[in-house]
């Protein structure tokens, strides 16, 4: 894929796009295949993304045979009797979600070696909650030269309380509990919809699992799991990004194959800001409005306003009338796109973990750089709304989570084209 997107802004976008399969559901459910022994996991609606390719590469390195049928996103993961229990550093460093192989590998092999995932541009992102839960289940954990070595006879079911409703820790511990001896109760779990998708896959594999409304999950460990087939849920963050594209360009966009309940917090904030949309069972249509009003919000774990939509929302509120306040409570430093938006004429001031956004009438096209996946999406949205030409560089970040975003935008009437050198180390996404 090319590493620069050139955008001619100011065109109201119109039409229908279909939400991709959720990146943050596909990655954990793919890792869950490692619980199988000589069986296969069939997945549908897996998005065609760099991060999915990285997970395919990681699982293949561990011994899993992966067949991908595109389009349609059907992936077959055939797992041999024996798999490697050592995750290669190069891949773990490339994608934090690689740490999701730790729980299943430890549960199934009795040991696992995982290089500590590096920090990234949005914060240090440790995995201390993952490790603490595994130790409570009987694992011996040692960290030597930046590699986590975990050993366990058979993990034992326990009652575990998560100090923070970490998505990754919830997922790793659910997968570890699937083959543990006895029942595991995890309290204060993440409530993101992607957790329910993983629970459905584990249940499909024969694991008795029950998510209770109180933010607690009960899992009765089994000796063996069996083949399963499951569909990946729609990507609520990608879907919301296209809804914001409609709002920001004064167009009319229908996002199909979305689950409205998954984006309640986003629709509530947009409605408060004066956006108008129609919601059906599996689609959202956004209608043109003159200009958004400013709103204030704080990112929170689900069902609160998602941190993954914070940067795209900064872009949208840059054009709202009045002063908006956006507080980031999940990650340490996730306002990197503010500087780049300001280069396009936005007026955003960062004070600690709060962005103060003084709305402006118009953004100007400019050459800007994506620093992470969602910052890249925010800059593309800004470019679509701005007057003149915008070049978004470092698109390699965007290809990690937005399938065919250039084609989808062109199908809505956007004037975008890819240019520049191919991303270094690019894969055939
Ligand atoms: C998942 O990351 C998502 N990634 C992220 O999406 C998302 O932003 C995040 O959840 C929050 O919703 C995937 O699902 C692959 P966390 P994860 O564990 O699991 C701290 C995107 O753009 N923490 O809920 O890493 C951590 O540092 C990506 O699609 C610990 O301190 O998120 C962070 O500040 C970005 N110790 C906060 O909790 C731990 O052991 C949330 O982390 C684990 C987490």
Plain-language structure description:
With 429 residues, the chain is of the alpha+beta class. The protein has two domains: 2-20 and 234-422, Enolpyruvate transferase domain (UDP-n-acetylglucosamine1-carboxyvinyl-transferase, Chain, Alpha-beta prism); 23-231, Alpha-beta prism (UDP-n-acetylglucosamine1-carboxyvinyl-transferase, Chain). The protein contains 13 helices and 23 strands. The strands form six sheets. A four-stranded mixed β-sheet has the order 21-22-1-23, covered by helices on one side. The chain has a four-stranded mixed β-sheet with strand order 2-14-16-15, with helices on one face. Strands 4-5-3-13 form a four-stranded mixed β-sheet, with helices on one face. α1 packs parallel to α7 (193-204), α4 (102-109) packs parallel to α6 (167-178) and α8 (236-249) runs parallel beside α12 (373-385). The radius of gyration is 21 Å and the shape is globular. It binds ligand EPZ.
Write the layout of secondary structure elements.
Elements (H helix, E strand, L loop, with lengths): L1 E7 L5 E5 L4 H9 L7 E6 L5 H13 L2 E5 L4 E6 L9 H6 L7 H8 L1 E5 L12 H9 L3 E5 L2 E5 L7 E3 L5 H12 L4 E5 L5 H12 L4 E4 L3 E5 L7 E4 L4 H14 L2 E5 L7 H9 L3 E4 L3 E5 L8 E3 L11 H8 L5 E5 L9 H7 L4 E4 L2 E5 L8 E3 L3 H13 L3 E5 L11 H7 L3 E8 L7
Parallel strand pairs: 2-14, 3-13, 9-10, 17-18, 21-22
Antiparallel strand pairs: 1-22, 1-23, 3-5, 4-5, 6-8, 7-8, 10-12, 11-12, 14-16, 15-16, 18-20, 19-20
The structure holds ligand EPZ.
Ligand EPZ binds next to helix 1, helix 5, helix 6 and helix 12.
